[in-house]
Amino acid sequence: MAERIVIALECPGCKRRNYHFARGKKKEYKLALNKFCSQCRKYAVHKEVKAN
Ligand SMILES: [Zn+2]
User: pTM of the full predicted structure?
Assistant: First the structure.
């Protein structure tokens, strides 16, 4: 429980958090994934932000 953090992937254009998931705390690198944003209606590189 303590080792889990919830992260979100934030669109760089509209700052909307389109994707949420939990992961272990050990990984230090930041995720950056090319995901579709329904707000911008296009693909953009969403960056990881903390959600909790
Ligand atoms: Zn967007």
Answer: 0.80
